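Intended use. Records like the one below are meant for learning the mapping from a protein sequence to its folded structure. Do not use them to infer anything beyond what is encoded.
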Amino acid sequence: MQIIRCIASKPGLFDNKIIDVGERITVIYGRNNSGKSFLARAIVDLTTGRLLDRDRVKENGWKNFYLDILFSGPSGKFRYVCNGEKTLSIKRCYDDSEDEIALFDLSSGETKDLVSGLLEKKESESLGSFYEKVGSGTYMNTSFLPSPMDIVREGRLDHEVFKRIFVFDNSNFYLLYGELHRNYGNGNAGLVREEIGRKVEQCRELDKQAKIIDIQSSKYEKLAKEKETIRADLDKLKVESIELMRKRDLLALILEKLNAKKEIEKKLDVINGDLGDEKNKEEEFSGLKKRMEQMFPRFIHFSELQKQNLKKIQELYRELRDVKEESEKFMSVVKQRGRILKNSVLAVNIASLVAIVFIMLNVIITLPRAEKLHVVYGILGLVGLSLAGLLGYSLYTARSKVIAWHVNRQREMEGMIQKLLVENNIDDTEYKIETVYEFLLQYFSEYTDYTEMQLEVLKLGSQLRGDDAVAEMKSDLKSAKADIRRLDSEIEADIYSLNMQKELPLDADVINGYLADFNTEYEKRMKELGRQENILNQLEVETAGSGCDNSGLQNILDQKGRLEEELRELTLHANTMKYILDLMNDSVIRREKRQMERLIAGTAAVFHSLTSNQYITDIGEGYIRDLLEGNISGEENTTVVHLLLLSIKIAVTDFLIDLNIPLPLIIDEPFQFMDDRRIQKLKTLLDDVAASRQVIIFTHNNNFKDWGSFIEL
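Structure written out for the chain above:
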């Protein structure tokens, strides 16, 4: 069911307001006192037929209110037009036309039944069948949430509505159960039991007539009594055989559930082992990470810029080291050449002095005084030239561009290193540049150890399954434990149904032994049943060949025999159906319990997700169960009750989809007690719901234009 369009008109509120409702989420905005809540209830009253309850209509102020709603139902499109308190017209819409299939007069003030009114005509029979399945109670309890201010007055849920939702499905199992219950009932109730009672009374009347007529026929009376005894024994044997079959089937079911429980217990062991391994890995990961943070605190919060600076420092350090080595190598060559030149100049000077002495003393050669002076001056000139060459080489080396380039390059790189150290928060003021080199070597070594340990931490972290996987394993663990509890509860119920005198041990061998005993006992009962039927047949033959000439007695006995045969068959059939009804009743009870637990679990998941687990210790399954069963006193926290009711309306979506009745969810003022975080979570939840059913929100807040279709009243 999906609402397509709504036209509303009421003096002072709506002036032929046309509302085109979206297929998914529609937000209808209106200021306070603009008629939002009134319109929300009016839509529900009209589409569910609650409008025909005239007392409710008078209370809700339908006077002078015109409402026209077009919606798509299970068998086509329909249009509901209500003209105030005058008429309600229901029309079936086609592509280019529409036919009126029902018209209700509201002016008389009498309460009318929508379902019976629709079922009267063939054209509206399909719509009437839909309302038989989905009454106004179903809609109010599953698809309409009043504003928080009206929760106390209108928020109480009807448990019987949810019970019907729990047990109904598309297999018509519950319809069959209801039909059996109506015909066979419990105890002496039911149509079949009434028929059995009538036949028993007829048999008694025939007995009276037969006894009057059969006073003179003692033999026939004996045979009749013996036949009655045997028939009673036959009935007893049949009932006992059916009971043996029931117990045998229950034992087989218990054995099957025990095997299922063992498989789940194996699964529990595997999950517990995986959780233990994950915990150990997590502890190892946390310990290594903590040790890394303790050993290398300076690198933990390294920014990307600091990491890049560290790489630049390493590159500059290597380049500075190369420049220093090249400079030292060049200076070594210069110094070596200087020493050679100094030694050469010294040798020349010494030789020159010796030569001058020898010449002046005429030791080797004797020269005139003038020539001696010329030779001495020449030697002194040679000494001057050598000293000038030595001085020139010293000046050349002191002003060498190569040496100056090395010195400048070294200073430049040292400045860059010191700048990067400052950017990386490394205080080098207490170091000379030579000691900084040693400090950097130690710093780079520690950073290398840090990166290696960081790789090891990342490796351990990659082995962890993650919080989602652990949460899933815990969820599987919880689900498996719930399955075991459910199986234990069902096994306990089945054992109670067996009604055995001795306590049944939950052992497969023992249960198989009981099964064998039941099979043996069943075969004995069937043999005895055959023997008794043979005796009864012989008695029937003897009775038929009796010498009694009284035709009236024979007719009465024949009539009684037919009645008794019908009664036996009817009783056997009733007992069999009663047994089947008991099994179906157990199934219905179990299904209702499972569905209730499913809805409670779904509601709790939605509620705790919506409230970020704020009430996880206060709001449990018992509280939600009381709310679903209508057990609220009115003194509860309005905010909590409103959020729980909202969670129930969301969680029940899956049940409505299972029944193929995706009713539109109409919510009045859901944001009143919500902060931004809850509102965002509600949007996520409603987006999921809108994939299956239409969502219509009435609010006085205009900040939700991006939720879907947005309409302003």
